[in-house]
Write the structure tokens for this entry.
Amino acid sequence: MSAQLKRRLRAGVPSIILALTVYVPLFLTRPGRVGADTKTYLYLDPSRLLSRATSMWDPSIGLGTVTHQNIGFLWPIGPYYWLAETLGVPDWIAQRFWTGSILFLAGLGVRFMLRTMGQEGPHVTAATFCYALTPYVLTLSARLSVILLPYAGLPWLLGLTVLALRRRRWREPALFALVVASIGSVNATALLLVGLAPVLWIAHEVVVTREIRFRDAAKVVGRIGLLTTLCSLWWLAGLWAQGGYGINILKYTETAETVATASLSLEVLRGLGYWFFYGEDRFGPWIAPSSTYMRRVELLVLSFVLPALGLVGLSVARFRERVFFAALLVMGLLLAVGPHPWSSPPPAGAALKALLESEYGLAMRSLPRATPLVALALAVFVGALIASLT
């Protein structure tokens, strides 16, 4: 066996372990049971859902209305469940594989991102697992797993931005655009929040390291912006139509104050802080693991130890991208905490509160969806701490 083949096999071992870690527990959890995730018609009749999603006008509701979000199911979740049904895959297996793939791709994205930044070693594997297994996935996977797609795409967007600035060709911006089209069609808020990370990286390379000239960076931004807009026109047009002619759904869902009530900084640091995670009614918690994460001592300790290790890594580790990930952590934390506490927020929170109380700012009320920025930065710092120790 050649040395090159041995290196490739060794490099593939962490990915295999990651796959076993994310897929096996999901398939062993209540086999045969289907969770109430995203849209019921994804499991009952995906063909019907896809046929109705092609038009923004839905005559089957009331006297007819402009649909909300349906067009986003044209890619990727709708075709996935349609293919699973066509192949005869049981719904519960298709659902478990969908969720596991989100976690698996999130972990692979961290590995890809750090390698593009020139990092190799066991600390890369540690960061991969920390990000893929963040408690943040619990806040959405049971009810709104499709909104986890921006979380999975975040490290891929960052890695492609690194390569785009380095190689200055059209291939990486095109891949960036395809990733955006795949992760952002259902929820623009989550996409915009994770999209701040590539913007911050470009600013870091131009202002902090000064390895990229402003003119060259502007060309890369132009390529990414042009191709991303063209690839996402199909769902952007739907968003425009729904905003202009559909029901003002923002008035009938959670308020900015409700969201801000649960977004404590300590909860955001451990990957939680989204209001829906803590909801309960007479039938019990809306998300089953929420009570476990609030009451079991071992989970409380573990979920706080990992971010604490990340903060230690931030303090002691020295590597080229340290300033960037520190800024990413601060920015993500400020956004995710938002205007908490709502009654008397600090100055930065007061500015966010004023934005959320405006007519257009209310669409950004789900600011805790910036938590992936925090989770990614802390995962990298946990890896950096391991690198420092070894």
User: Anything to note?
Assistant: The chain has a mean pLDDT of 91.
